[in-house]
Amino acid sequence: MDNESQYSGYSYKSSHSRNSRKHRDRRDRHRSKSRDGSSRGDKSVTIHAPGEPLLDTESTRGDDRDDNWGETTTVQTGTSEHSVSNEDLTRVSKELEESSPLECRRFLGPGLGAVLGLFALVTPLAFLALPQLLWREALEPCGTPCEGLYVSLAFKLLVLLISTWALFLRPPRATLPRFYVFRCLLLALVFLFVASYWLFYGVRVLEPRERDYRGIVGYAASLVDALLFIQYLALVLLEVRHLQPAFCLKVVRTTDGASRFYNVGHLSIQRAAVWVLDQYYSDFPVYNPALLNLPKSILSKKSSGFKVYTLGEENNTNNSTGQSRAMIAAAARRRDNSHNEYYYEEAEMERRVRKRKARLLVAVEEAFTHIKRLQDDEPAASSPKHPREVMDPREAAQAIFAPMARAMQKYLRTTRQQPYHSMESIINHLQFCITHNMTPKAFLERYLSPGPTLQYQRENTMGRQWTLVSEEPVTSALSKGLVFSLRRLDFSLVVTVTPLPFLHLGEEFIDPKSHKFVMRLQSETSV
Amino acid sequence: MKGPLSYLQPGRNTKVSDQSETMSFIPGQPVTAVVQRIEIRKLRQGEHLILGFSIGGGIDQDPGQNPFSEDKSDKGIYVTRVTPEGPAEVAGLMMGDKVMQVNGWDMTMVTHDQARKRLTKKNEDVVRLLVTRKSLEQAVKHSMM
Prior knowledge:
The structure holds 2 protein chains of 2 kinds.
Chain A: H1 2-31, H2 62-74, H3 86-134, H4 144-168, H5 181-206, H6 213-240, E1 247-253, E2 259-264, H7 269-283, H8 296-303, H9 316-333, H10 338-368, H11 393-414, H12 423-435, H13 440-448, E3 467-470, E4 483-487, E5 492-499, E6 524-526
Antiparallel strand pairs in A: 1-2, 1-5, 3-4, 4-5
Chain B: E1 15-17, E2 34-41, E3 43-45, E4 48-50, E5 53-57, E6 77-82, H1 87-91, E7 98-102, E8 105-106, H2 112-119, E9 126-132, H3 134-144
Antiparallel strand pairs in B: 1-2, 2-9, 3-4, 5-6, 6-7, 7-8, 7-9
């Protein structure tokens, strides 16, 4: 067990540096869109806080990791754990200056909307208040009708306030590449509306110092009515229109072919993309690059087979095309048996996984029998000979992790999941399961099947960067036969749109008395 | 002569050997079978003309209950009983035969009642049946080998 922990400790440390390099590479690549990729050549290393996953789950190159981990343990250029180099400083400052426009952009749209909304809500009150403040003496008193209008105005404003809060004041979850057409339309409408009301107010009321207060109150009430109707329009356009399903989207991941079908309503391409990504994070199994390719042992056999010898020829240029053509022809004629080997390799792999899984199950079951929950009424120390120390969940988890660690690690290695689960995360999960009285099987469900991508995410305020690739402009509506794709660094999702079929639903009435049965005939007639 | 292989004697029992095929029925394809031509003279008993056998089957009947058919979805007309020393037995009809034609009328796709009517027409004295049975096919195979 000691050897085990040391070994895993090394791989963790190496992968920290690898992790940070990946982060840095990704940021560099992103930055190079605006600059000229000058920062790509950096080779410095940052140290992140321990406890992060071994690799960022979405941009991994599993093959690299296995080959190179030995090198990165020994090489650390220019930094030690406790010092910050000059390169770090410059890079950090670059990051800060670059990330702030992103962060601001995220809140720009809603901020504008909030300002406009507030302005629109305050306007009726201003309409009412201004005459009172400016020429109070000259106003005609208005009795009961005004009070009725006051009450209705107050309630309508309250309703507007609550519904605006409920519908629109939500933190935005995505930044879209183009303007969100409906929202812009509505904001423009509200602005025009309120502006025209102010215009009329200024010309008709403020200038001549209108004395009919009831008319002014009625004017303010009509503004509030109109705002309510605009909000109804907003509700329909932004929220309700896309609820009724109209299209079926097929989403396929390019790297391993995982696909899903979803039903959506009438949306623009960018909104549909956001919706698809929401579903992607919880439906699709996590992308594991280690599981993609056929083992090299199978594929490489294709290329071997024929060696071409040149017998005393000196002119190589003529020969090379002849050689390659001959090799291709020979390879085509030769019978290809690699499918056979693939089949056996698959069977062998499956057998290995099952064996490891069985060992893991047994180890975990046994480990779970070592602890039990202390009931409240039991005395903590049952007898002086066998004192039982009371542990909190974390300690209990660490105590029972030891016997199952080896089996767990072997299983994760066989299924190539070890990048996603660090020792720390396994112990955390174990602690969580113990606290909630889960059985060993419930503890293992996280490891036995690849979960959705969301399960492996970390808290990240930077957000995920996706690129929407489409031939049509992204604000156009979904239509039949449209294809767009959402690209990430190492894989992409291709989305195909098909309309849902129109249904002709007919009716058939069956009289309950019409269900009658007879025995089948078998008669014999003599002739 | 009642043997199925009597090519050389034209008469009642000449066999019409079509292509040898199984008795199962493929929808849409012509039915081929090895048949035997049997001519039965009706016997007058009282005021009825009888033939001396019983039939079962038909497209309105349950084919699964037919003990004589090979294919339990065959809805043809089968001979279920032959009265001993009756005109049918004299003519060479055997129990288990499937009746393919009666006087030129098809019997493979008829209801039980239609079959009965075809066989018991009052103005006919003689009925000429084409019947088939499994042993006919086997005999043809043996003779060809």
